[in-house]
Specification:
Blueprint (H helix, E strand, L loop, with lengths): L1 E6 L4 H12 L2 E7 L14 E3 L5 H11 L3 E4 L6 H6 L1 H22 L3 E7 L22 H20 L2 E7 L1 E3 L17 H9 L6 E4 L11 E2 L1 E3 H16 L5 E5 L5 E2 H12 L5 E4 L8 E2 L4 H7 L8 H14 L5
Parallel strand pairs: 1-2, 1-4, 2-3, 4-5, 5-6, 6-11, 7-10, 8-13, 9-14
Antiparallel strand pairs: 9-12
Helix pairs in contact: 1-7, 2-4, 4-5, 6-8, 6-10, 8-10
The chain binds uridine-5'-diphosphate.
Cofactor: NAD(+)
GO molecular function: UDP-glucose 4-epimerase activity
Protein name: UDP-glucose 4-epimerase
Length: 327
């Protein structure tokens, strides 16, 4: 059995990745500070609580588990928050990743799968983005992830740290078996907020901006099912273990949904209307983020077969009604 160090393994995407790693024959070793993650979500392998900036702790975890690779999910990822406190993002995401990469190199663990974001592209006037699109982030979150991508390239040249970078579009849905799901406190993401509003767990959803240059005036995003997303990570890990070159892959579907379209689909799936009000734009939001994922499909053999809006909301709704974490 082979250990893989999963930073952020107690979070939404990281916990789904741990389940997929275990199914693929690896042992996921979760390293998580529990600042935004949940101990209850660590179900598929050992858990080590620690901060990325705690280099001594990282060194001891690398020595104890001797992982064959790192999957690095741990990050702060909220557009609203990063506009108010950019220092938090540069310290936690950039300095934290630097500490992790230095510990990995020191331990001789040189295969690194990194969770980046479409927010590195910024607002690019209604183009469908691909991996060669220029990166012009408009918020500190996107800027912090772009900086980590740059560090990875430098670390490969200097230290041989080989990497696969995944630039995610919007992730939604949950494990259909209900072992793990999306649970943030505070919650800021569209789908869980909508489901909360539907069943009265919180007030009406606020649509952030109805005056964007899109057909219905609301922002357009490309939503990927979390299970499809983590499948790509397993393929990325195998790619590195087969000795292939470092590579960047977008993970999206090429289809955009406006906020109003997501609301309509939620109404259809749950058979309940989403209470909402129209509000002003949220600082840092791009008008439209949609990806081509042909590279992941062609080169990795990725098959995103669950990433239709109906299935994502159905799985999120099932989790929403039954699942949550206590600690
Ligand atoms: N959104 C919204 N109301 C909310 C939360 C999100 O209108 O309460 C919109 C947001 O402006 C964006 C889309 O929903 O266009 C997805 O936002 P989310 O925060 O889920 O993900 P992000 O795109 O920031 O990664």
């Amino acid at each position: 059995m082979k250990n893989v160090l999963v930073t952020g393994g107690a979070g939404y995407i990281g916990s789904h990745a741990c389940k997929a790693l275990k199914a693929a024959g690896f042992i996921p070793v979760t390293y998580d500070s529990l600042v935004t993650g949940w101990k209850d979500a660590v179900k598929f392998g050992p858990f080590e609580q620690g901060d990325l900036l705690d280099r001594a702790k990282l060194d001891s975890v690398f020595a104890q588990y001797e992982p064959v690779a790192v999957m690095h999910f741990a990050a702060l990822s909220l557009v609203g928050e990063c506009m108010q406190d950019p220092g938090l993002y540069w310290r936690n995401n950039v300095a934290g990743s630097l500490s992790l990469m230095e510990a990995a190199v020191a331990a001789g663990c040189l295969d690194f799968v990194f969770s980046s974001t479409c927010a590195t592209y910024g607002d690019q006037d209604n183009v469908v983005l691909d991996e060669d699109s220029v990166q012009m982030p408009i918020n500190a979150y996107g800027a912090s992830k772009r900086a980590i991508e740059d560090m990875l390239r430098d670390f490969e040249v200097a230290h041989g740290l080989r990497h696969v970078i995944f630039r995610y579009f919007n992730v939604a849905g949950a494990d259909p078996e209900g072992d793990v799901g999306e649970y943030h406190r505070p919650e800021t993401h569209l789908v869980p907020l909508m489901l909360d509003a539907i069943d009265g767990k919180r007030d009406a959803l606020t649509i952030f901006g109805t005056d964007y240059d899109t057909p219905d005036g609301t922002c357009i995003r490309d939503y990927v099912h979390v299970c499809d997303l983590v499948d790509a990570h397993i393929l990325g890990l195998k790619w590195l273990r087969e000795g292939k070159d470092s590579r960047v892959f977008n993970l999206g579907t090429g289809t955009g949904f406006s906020v109003r379209e997501v609301l309509d689909e939620s109404h259809a799936v749950t058979n309940r209307a989403v209470p909402y009000v129209e509000g002003p734009r949220r600082a840092g939001d791009c008008t439209k983020l949609v990806s081509g994922s042909q590279r992941a499909i062609n080169e990795l053999g990725w098959e995103p077969h669950r990433s239709n809006m109906k299935e994502m909301i159905t799985d999120a709704w099932r989790w929403h009604q039954s699942g949550h974490y206590e600690g």
